[in-house]
What we know:
Number of helices of chain A: 24
Radius of gyration of chain A: 25 Å
Distance between the termini of chain A: 70 Å
Strand content of chain B: 15-25%
Radius of gyration of chain B: 16 Å
Number of helices of chain B: 6
Low-confidence stretches of chain B: 1-8
Oligomer: heterodimer
Mean pLDDT of chain A: 90
Order of helices and strands of chain B: EHEEEHEEHHHH
Helix content of chain B: 25-40%
Structural class of chain A: alpha/beta
Largest sheet of chain B: 6 strands, mixed
Strand content of chain A: 5-15%
CATH topology of chain B: Pyruvate-ferredoxin Oxidoreductase, domain 3
Number of domains of chain A: 4
Bound molecules: iron/sulfur cluster
Mean pLDDT of chain B: 87
Number of strands of chain B: 6
Structural class of chain B: alpha/beta
CATH superfamily of chain B: Pyruvate-ferredoxin oxidoreductase, PFOR, domain III
CATH class of chain B: Alpha Beta
Strand order of the largest sheet of chain B: 2-3-1-4-5-6
Distance between the termini of chain B: 31 Å
Largest interface: A-B, 21 and 19 residues
CATH architecture of chain B: 3-Layer(aba) Sandwich
Number of strands of chain A: 14
Strand order of the largest sheet of chain A: 2-1-3-4
Amino acid sequence: xxxxxxxxFLCNWGPHTAFQTLQDNGSEIPTEVSMMIPCTGRISxxxxxxxxxxxxxxxxxxxxxxxxxxxxxxxxxxxxxxxxTREIIGLLGLGKERLRHVTFLPDESDLLLxxxxxFCNQIRSLGPSPMALIRMPESEIVSRESLAEIVSYHDAxxxxxxxxxxxxxxxxxxxxxxxxxxxxxxxxxxxxxxxSVNKDIWSCLTxxxxxxxxxxxxxxxxxxxxxxxxxxxxGGNAHEAHGGFFQSLxxxxxxxxxxxxxxxxxxxxxxxxxxxxxxxxxxxxxxxxIFFRNHLGVETLNILMDSLRLLxxxxxxxxxxxxxxxxGHDLLWSGDKDNFLKLASMNVESxxxxxxxxxxTACPECYxxxxxxxxxxxxxxxxxxxxxxxxxxxxxxxxxxxxKKINKKxxxxxSCRLNWLEAPADLPRKLIRRLKPSSFREMQNNGKSAICxxxxxxxxxDAFSKALQVKRLRQAHATESDLLVTACPKCQIxxxxxxxxxxxxxxxxxxxxxxxxxxxxxxxxx
Amino acid sequence: MTDSQNYKQRKxxxxxxxxxxxxxxxxxxxxxxxxxxxEHMESTLVQSYGPESRGxxxxxxVVISDEIIHYPYVNQPDILVCMSQSGYDKLIKQMKQRGTLxxxxxxxxxxxxxxxDLFSIPATRMAEELxxxxxxxxxxxxxxxxxxxxxxxxxxxxxxxESVPKGTEELNSNAFKKGHDYGLATLKGRQKKATGQAxxxx
Lengths: 526, 202
Ligand code: SF4
Ligand code: SF4
Ligand code: SF4
């Protein structure tokens, strides 16, 4: 009937009755695909988004009028899910208008027909979705040889079976039946179909604690990362959190036609300069905040805002990448190397086109990925990558800077992605020591032995992840601090998630702020 | 960086004061040398030690001018650099009105009324952080160069490299840079404060 792919999710109850009337009357219904669903409240953000990822030009979620939902909360949930997804596809440059949630009574068939026609016309006038059809990594049966290659590349054969890794692994320590050593051994033995390999491979936090302890220097996190790629290629399930929403989101960013609007929230007082040779790379915080706003209420966008203000404070007006895409960290670490490589080359090409000499970022994952993993995957950079802590430390140490006192007792959550890189590992503490809180006390596990925030790359989140986070937050409380300073937007998200525990919530709750935020709030020219 | 031409047609009388052993005299020598060799100006240096010359207070009186200098003593300095409390106490009254006061923040406590009208730097602490207290004088020279416009950066850096012991050139250049950066940061801070933007979040 038309070349546009418009997906209609239709609630079983109210709207479907109206729809059926149209069918019975032989009305011409303009949509191509319609799907009956038990309740609009069951259509998650990831399902709504998935439709776009798979090439839909428009998506409709038709449900019952408020108050007529058979299950009570369906309408409200659907409204929230649609609103969040709309905002996200707006930032993505897809156009909010392509997704609607509308409610109908069973007898409103005329209204329904009119609405469908209007919507389809609107989509036609918008044109086809700029989203390219996303290829999932092509599945290929991976031979034993290529597995052996990974094993020997990471020198996993050197494993002495000593078990130091398992005794350091925070997952094992929290009681998960999980052992890095066993995992290495099963993989070496080629036992790829075993349950332990297929499940545990997605549980590893890639936090790197075991790597630090391993006498044979088996780089377990990177080894796991590469094995994940193989398993994914063989069609394995990545145990993605949140229905794979974030993986979908990041994959769709490989579409060349997308004109993202991820900076549209930028406040007036932040000064940027499109001609600058210094670029600020923001990362995916704008998306995270929308996704979690009704649940966790995280505000990781503040990290970007505060970073930009700190740059302005030092008279740096950076350029922004208008078509900035995800750096690809989460795809790389959840087994989708192909799409990671696409994102990487697109970002680097855009940055090169602007003639940028230095890229500054405040996100540890972006930092590691740009500075370390891009070159390692053969993508050459004609620019230098600087973490904002390096820049802050350099500028502050020049002098004439002081910090206002803050009436807070602080403790610090290390970022695993900074901890394992030589250069920036000490910087957060150097900066913290410059601050003037009532007190600064370290948690029991800190620095190189710090426990991570409990999830990496949105895979394998389970009850043990929660237990791990609870343990970490209890350590934070044990310092008697009242402000948890973090260095990564993901730490804020995952730890906040644990604080939402309905049974422990109050006990675990603690105010959090990113290090850039506390610096921006207190720094001043002497 | 400013062109050396801009420094001409001007006479500056400077006193650097501190303890013996802080490299006060060397700082004076470097300043004079930079003016004479780098800027092709006239310069004189008079060094005076207090009664107890070791560890006691000492000062370097430097005059820089584009005309011949007839009288090398400095009674009323345009610029007073203090690296000790006793030096400050003794000389502050002599400073010209609207003169420039520069102090080591950790070593000198200025009289309350003066607080806003001076330049201060923790030169000794910074030298310690660089690994040698001895180079506090060079940190101070870097700061001096940034906050006053007496000598160009080029001339003074050359004079430093020529005057310090062989093998310590890099350390001293570093010290100079630290002090200079601190000076630039101080100026920037003042400018920001003047426009009402002392903090990062307005
Ligand atoms: S610590 Fe290293 S050598 Fe020891 S069991 Fe683990 S991987 Fe093998
Ligand atoms: S990287 Fe972290 S979570 Fe994974 S096995 Fe090592 S210690 Fe455990
Ligand atoms: S910790 Fe919470 S926010 Fe993080 S992946 Fe798990 S469920 Fe999602």
